[in-house]
C-alpha cells in the first residue's frame, strides 16, 4: 500500500507541475499566433538554465551526502542554503543583463523586457530547490510531491486568469513568476526551518567538487533539449520554434512525469542500497523496469492520439506540429533509460560518469540540429529519435555495469515490463480504432482507464517494485539467497 501511495503522490505532484504547463500551453496556443508563443518558448530556453543550476549539482549533494550527526546535518543544510540562493540570484542577474543582446540576436524585441521579468523568479526557484532537496534527503517524498501539487494548481489558476484577461506573453510570465513564488512558500513552510548554522567553506568546496560534473552534464542536456528551439528560431522564425515546442511538449509531458518519479525514487533507493552494501543491482532493475513500462506507456499514448489531439486542441495553425509527434514520442520513451545514469552515478558518488554520458548524448543531439534543422522539424525529430534509442541502450548497459547487475536477471525484469507494455499497447490500439469514431474524448478516456487497469496489474506483478518499501525486496532476495 505504501508503494502505491508513493507512486500516486509522485504522479499527483509531478503531474500537477507538468499539467499546469500543458494547460497554459493549450490556452496560450488557442489565443496566440505561433510566433508569439514561440517568443515565450525561446525565453523559457534561457530561463531554464537558472532552474537547472538550483535543481541539480549542489541539489544532489544536499539530497544524498552523509551527515555524521545533527551538527553536521545543520552545517550541510546551512551551507547549501546560501550556495543555492547565491546561484539563483546570480542566474537572475545574468539573465536580466543579457536580455537586450538576446533580443537583437533573435530579432525578438519582446525578449528585452520578458527576460528581466522572468529573472525575478530565480531567487524563489532557488529556495524551492533547497527545500525540495531537504525533504528528499529526509525521505519525505510524499510531502514534497504534495507541496508541488498544491503550488502548481494555485499558480495555474492565476496564470489562466491572467491569460484570459490579457492574452500575451506577459500573462505567461505572470504564471511562471507566481509558480516560483508559491512553490518556494509552500515547501519552505513544510520544511519549517532555514539555515540553523553558519555556512562552511569546507562543505561548500566538497559540494562543488561533487557538483561540477553534474552541472556540466545538465548544461549539455539543456543545450541538446533546447538546441532545436534555438536553431529553428535562427534558421526560420519564432513560429517554427512555437510549432516545435508544442510538439515536443505533447510528446514529452507524460514520459517526463513518469521518468522524474522513477529518478527521484531511484536516487533514494539506490543511495540506501549502496550505503548498506547490498541490493543496488536489484533496485536498478526495478528502476529500469518502471521506466520501460511507465515512460513507454505514456509515449505510446501520445503517438496514438497525437494528431487528433493537435487538431482538437490547437487548431489548423498548429497542424504542422503533428508531423513530428511520432518521432518525438519515440525520443521521449528512450531518453529516460539514458537518464537512469543520473541516479546511479549520483548515489554511487561517480558523478563524472553521468557527465560524460550526458556530454556524448548532447553532442550527438546538437550535431543533429546542425545537420537536419534546415530540413524541418519532422526530419530533425527522427534524427534525434535514433540518437535517443542508441543513448538509451548504452545507458542501460552502463548502469548495469556500474551496479554489477547480472544480464540474465536484468533481462528477466525488463522482459516482464515489456510484456505489460505490449499488453497496454495492444489494448490501447484496439480502443482507439474502435472508439475514435465516437469522439476523441470517449476513445482517450477508455484508453486511460485501460492504462490504470494495466498499471495496477503490473504493480501486483512486481514491475513497479521500485515504489515499494526501500528494503523489502532486498531483504526478500537476501533471504532467498539471491545476489544483491
Q: Mind explaining what this structure looks like?
A:
This protein has helices at 2-31, 34-54, 58-64, 70-105, 111-119, 122-137, 141-165, 169-191, 201-235, 238-276, 280-313, 325-339, 341-348, 351-372, 377-403, 407-435, 440-461, 472-480. α4 runs antiparallel to α6 (122-137) and α9 (201-235) runs parallel beside α14 (351-372). It is globular, with a radius of gyration of 22 Å. The protein contains 18 helices and no strands. It is 84% helix and 0% strand. With 484 residues, the protein is mainly α. It folds into 2 domains: 1-199, no CATH class; 222-484, no CATH class. The two termini are 24 Å apart. The model is unreliable at 470-484 (pLDDT under 50).
Biggest beta sheet attributes: none
| Pattern of helices and strands | HHHHHHHHHHHHHHHHHH
Task: Report the radius of gyration as a whole number of Å.
Answer: 22 Å
Averaged pLDDT, please? 79
| Structural domain count | 2
Shape: globular
- Report how far apart the termini are: 24 Å
Helix/strand-derived category reads mainly alpha
Number of helices: 18
- Using DSSP, what is the number of strands? 0
Q: Low-confidence stretches at least 5 residues in length (pLDDT < 50)?
A: 470-484
Strand fraction: under 5%
Membrane topology: Multi-pass membrane protein
Pfam families: Polysacc_synt_3
InterPro entries: Poly_Biosynth_Transport
Protein name: Oligosaccharide flippase family protein
Task: Give keywords.
18 helices, 484 residues, mainly alpha
How do the strands and helices of this protein lay out in sequence?
Layout: H1 2-31, H2 34-54, H3 58-64, H4 70-105, H5 111-119, H6 122-137, H7 141-165, H8 169-191, H9 201-235, H10 238-276, H11 280-313, H12 325-339, H13 341-348, H14 351-372, H15 377-403, H16 407-435, H17 440-461, H18 472-480
Helix pairs in contact: 1-7, 1-10, 2-4, 2-5, 2-6, 2-9, 2-10, 3-6, 3-9, 4-5, 4-6, 4-9, 6-8, 7-8, 9-10, 9-14, 10-11, 10-12, 10-13, 11-12, 11-15, 11-16, 11-17, 12-15, 13-14, 14-15, 16-17
Amino acid at each position: 500500500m505504501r508503494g502505491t501511495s508513493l507512486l500516486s503522490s509522485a504522479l499527483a505532484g509531478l503531474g500537477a507541475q507538468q499539467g499546469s504547463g500543458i494547460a497554459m500551453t493549450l490556452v496560450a496556443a488557442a489565443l496566440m499566433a505561433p510566433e508569439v508563443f514561440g517568443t515565450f518558448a525561446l525565453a523559457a530556453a534561457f530561463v531554464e538554465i537558472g532552474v537547472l543550476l538550483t535543481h541539480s549539482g549542489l541539489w544532489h549533494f544536499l539530497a544524498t551526502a552523509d551527515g555524521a550527526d545533527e551538527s553536521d546535518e545543520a552545517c550541510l543544510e546551512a551551507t547549501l542554503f546560501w550556495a543555492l540562493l547565491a546561484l539563483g540570484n546570480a542566474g537572475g542577474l545574468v539573465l536580466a543583463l543579457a536580455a537586450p543582446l538576446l533580443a537583437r540576436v533573435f530579432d525578438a524585441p519582446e525578449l528585452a523586457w520578458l527576460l528581466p521579468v522572468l529573472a525575478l523568479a530565480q531567487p524563489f526557484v532557488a529556495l524551492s530547490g533547497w527545500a525540495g532537496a531537504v525533504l528528499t534527503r529526509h525521505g519525505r517524498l510524499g510531502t514534497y510531491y504534495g507541496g508541488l501539487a498544491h503550488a502548481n494548481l494555485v499558480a495555474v489558476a492565476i496564470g489562466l486568469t491572467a491569460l484570459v484577461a490579457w492574452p500575451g506573453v506577459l500573462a505567461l510570465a505572470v504564471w511562471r513568476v507566481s509558480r516560483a513564488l508559491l512553490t518556494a512558500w509552500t515547501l519552505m513552510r513544510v520544511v519549517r526551518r532555514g539555515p540553523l548554522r553558519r555556512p562552511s567553506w569546507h562543505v561548500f568546496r566538497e559540494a562543488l567538487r561533487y557538483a561540477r560534473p553534474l552541472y556540466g552534464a545538465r548544461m549539455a542536456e539543456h543545450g541538446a533539449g533546447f538546441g532545436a528551439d534555438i536553431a529553428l528560431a535562427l534558421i526560420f522564425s519564432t513560429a517554427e520554434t512555437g510549432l516545435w515546442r508544442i510538439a515536443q511538449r505533447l510528446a514529452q509531458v507524460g514520459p517526463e512525469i513518469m521518468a522524474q518519479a522513477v529518478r527521484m525514487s531511484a536516487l533514494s533507493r539506490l543511495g540506501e542500497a549502496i550505503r548498506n552494501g547490498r541490493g543496488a543491482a536489484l533496485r536498478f532493475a526495478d528502476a529500469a523496469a518502471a521506466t520501460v513500462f511507465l515512460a513507454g506507456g505514456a509515449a505510446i499514448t501520445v503517438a496514438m492520439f497525437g494528431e487528433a489531439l493537435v487538431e482538437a486542441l490547437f487548431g489548423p495553425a498548429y497542424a504542422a506540429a503533428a508531423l513530428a509527434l511520432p518521432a518525438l514520442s519515440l525520443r521521449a520513451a528512450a531518453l529516460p533509460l539514458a537518464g537512469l545514469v543520473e541516479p546511479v552515478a549520483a548515489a554511487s558518488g561517480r558523478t563524472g560518469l553521468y557527465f560524460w554520458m550526458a556530454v556524448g548524448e548532447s553532442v550527438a543531439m546538437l550535431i543533429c540540429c546542425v545537420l537536419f534543422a534546415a530540413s524541418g522539424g519532422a526530419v530533425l525529430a527522427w534524427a534525434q529519435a535514433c540518437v535517443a534509442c542508441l543513448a538509451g541502450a548504452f545507458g542501460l548497459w552502463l548502469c548495469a555495469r556500474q551496479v554489477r547487475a547480472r544480464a540474465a536477471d536484468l533481462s528477466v525484469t525488463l522482459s516482464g515490463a515489456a510484456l505489460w507494455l505490449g499488453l497496454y499497447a495492444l489494448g490501447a490500439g484496439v480502443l482507439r480504432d474502435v472508439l475514435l469514431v465516437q469522439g476523441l474524448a470517449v476513445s482517450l478516456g477508455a484508453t486511460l482507464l485501460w492504462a490504470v487497469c494495466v498499471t495496477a496489474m503490473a504493480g501486483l506483478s512486481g514491475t513497479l517494485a521500485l515504489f515499494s518499501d526501500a528494503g523489502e525486496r532486498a531483504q526478500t532476495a537476501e533471504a532467498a539467497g539471491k545476489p544483491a
